[in-house]
Amino acid sequence: MSAFHPETADQNDLSGRVAVVTGANSGLGLATARALAARGAHVVMACRNPQKAADAVADVAANAPGGVEAMPLDLASLKSVEAFAAAFRERFAALDLLINNAGVMVPPFGLTADGFELQFGTNHLGHFALTARLSDRLLAAPRARVVNVSSIAHRAGRIDFDTLDTPPTAATYRATAAYGQSKLANLLFSLELQRRFTAAGVAATAAAAHPGWSSTNLQVNMRIAELMNPLFAQSPAQGALPTLYAALMDSAAGGYFGPDGFTGMRGKGVAPASRSARAQDVSAAERLWTHSERLTGVHFDIPARRAPAAA
Ligand SMILES: NC(=O)c1ccc[n+]([C@@H]2O[C@H](COP(=O)([O-])OP(=O)(O)OC[C@H]3O[C@@H](n4cnc5c(N)ncnc54)[C@H](OP(=O)(O)O)[C@@H]3O)[C@@H](O)[C@H]2O)c1
């Protein structure tokens, strides 16, 4: 694959398209929002903190010919996800790009408003419910793309199906394992979403990306990584390239992309990223979907495309 320059993306002119970016006020989400807005998309920055969101909108608005706005979204609350989707549906008939980017990494023990372990609840379940609640708007777009932002850390992840219903306690919480599980869930969700889009014969597609190691606020709970950021991490703009590739290249459907450099930690270009065997397990992907529907209480059906009526 030759080096990817977003200027040469297949979908380089996003005029008239609508994009939602979660966690758009910081790091990779902000870099992604800037790039999509500069291409003419109307960008909805889905953020939990109103002040940070307002600052980020002001930043992106400097080059946003299609317009940019913030809408409140806390992925750690299913009520907030529902309210965001309702507000979005009021305003927009179709959604062209959904960038499921927001995330937390190895925070101190905590639960979401609905009682899920914070990382699994925010990084996976919140995005699962959001995508489900926006699915009719995705299907209303000519060829929507959903991008899930995962991590190399998915490789250490396992989905512990036996404990999904009973979140850890402060004593049993293992922060790194929980992050790995949530990032593996991002990839399994992408796999199953693309499979279901294809089975339904719809034009919408799914793809996944990881940013390698990028200097953002994500490392706030990992002091060592934070200290090493200036030495090893790449910029958020560079780290967002795989997400942009997954969003803007026609051939990216069903794929998983990361930086093209050694070990995938950084790179000037974008390359297909390797998934662990667990991230390619189609039966685990289907099982996770069923669990996610049950845990979130959101039924995620993708109706088959109706054949055009005979003349
Ligand atoms: N940076 C890396 O090296 C790296 C590596 C692998 C994968 N990733 C992935 O990249 C994605 C973006 O992370 P980043 O590096 O850009 O980190 P970041 O700068 O900390 O940005 C994370 C964003 O997610 C938002 N967020 C967190 N919890 C949320 C919630 N409950 N509801 C709504 N938004 C929430 C944050 O909002 P606040 O500002 O309000 O906290 C922030 O806008 C994450 O999915 C992460 O797992 C990053």
Describe the protein's architecture and organization.
There is one protein chain. The chain has 311 residues and is an alpha/beta fold. The chain has a single domain, classed as NAD(P)-binding Rossmann-like Domain (Rossmann fold, 3-Layer(aba) Sandwich), CATH 3.40.50. Helices cover 40% and strands 12% of the residues. The chain contains 10 helices and 8 strands. The chain has an 8-stranded mixed β-sheet with strand order 3-2-1-4-5-6-7-8, with helices on both faces. Strand 5, helix 6 and strand 6 form a beta-alpha-beta unit. Helix 6 packs across helix 10. The longest helix is centred in the middle third of the chain and has 26 residues. The radius of gyration is 18 Å and the shape is globular. The model has no long low-confidence stretch (mean pLDDT 94). Bound molecules: NADP nicotinamide-adenine-dinucleotide phosphate (NAP). NADP nicotinamide-adenine-dinucleotide phosphate binds next to helix 1 and helix 4. NADP nicotinamide-adenine-dinucleotide phosphate (NAP) binds next to helix 1 and helix 4.
Q: Concise description?
A:
The protein has about 300 residues and is an alpha/beta fold. The chain has helices spanning about 25-40, 50-60, 80-90, 120-135, 135-140, 175-200, 225-230, 235-240, 240-250, 280-295; strands at about 20, 40-45, 70, 95-100, 145-150, 205-210, 255-260, 270.
